[in-house]
Amino acid sequence: MEIYDIVKQAGISETLWQASAEKHDVVHEEFDGIDLYRVTKKIGTLGKGSLVTPEGIIFDFPSIARILHLENGIRNAYSQPFYVEEKVDGYNVRVARVQGRIVVFSRGAYICPFSTDRIADFLDVKKIFDENPGLVICGEFAGPENPYNIEHPPYVREDVRFFAFDIMRMSKPQKISVEERYKIFDTYGIPTVRRFGRYSASDISDLKKLVKELDEAGCEGIVIKPTHTAEKILKYVTLGSCLRDIRVTAPLMAEMASEFFTHRIIRAAMFMHEHAHSLKSGIFTQLGEVLLKPVYENVGKAARNEIIDEKFSLRFREEKNVQRMIDHLYKCKVKFEVLSKNKEGNYWHVKFARKCYASYDILQKHLEGSAHVD
User: Fold this and answer.
1) Does residue 129 belong to any structural domain of this protein?
2) If we measure between CA atoms, which residue out of 123, 198, 220 comes closest to residue 163?
3) Is 31:84 a contact under the CB 8 Å cutoff?
4) I need a surface site. Which of 7, 37, 323, 354 has the fewest CB within 10 A?
């Protein structure tokens, strides 16, 4: 099928498509013989992160609205029952078959060589996609050995795991219903995020208890999925999630937008107000430590002329995908150094360090006494 016939299904004219390509709002990509187009800026009904493939369109995974007050957020949003699932701390992917190959796309619509290499460890991909042509499985890769996130769920102690949470179909922007999704997950033994069941707005006390248990266990939070199509999906995170986000990002505070931190401090305050009804002295110590300690440690590194970095460990099934991942990181303009590559058992174990030159340079200038206006 011609590319113009495919995008026409989404209401995109040939003229609009060509104009978008000229502005680089859509970019042609090639990965190991697979040809596709990656949408970098919204074009008509195609959101940023959508993909156009010879088989059809893989629509973007939309951002989910966040509530900061659990009780009022739920009462405002839902008049009908809804399902509650765990929000897993990882990175978002879509799994699909393109040109006969199973590939895994990042939220930014890149084919991720690491995720593509590892997905067969978690899904019976041949059976699933042979019996369900055009299926798109949305999920989260999570664990301590991933190329993007430092944080991970407390129950994934090594390597990574895959957790499915939604299903779309090629060339259809809507996700399928929760009930249909669960049926497919269970039929094919697809690993999923934890499913806590069906609730209604009258079950607030039970949901508060669930959130408290998740917070105490070190989990990120919940995603709330409506049974009525007119109602929207919402997410809500724990206090611990806010503090962990700050802790792992504070080392790069010098180059980060301040809103990243203020948003999480506000979320933490809202959580404490609703669930604890007071501020215990220990929370001041925790917040101060996650904010200040990482920055202080990096000032020390800069003073010793040590480049600030973040270290990652990965496992690959196939050696060729190690180089593809390296190429992918270069393409995404990530500055890094491969520290080691060894075959251990069935996997290639790779360690690399992401070099944080911007933070290093900023702290160095401050240490040298440079003046600046803020």
Assistant:
1) no
2) 123
3) no
4) 323
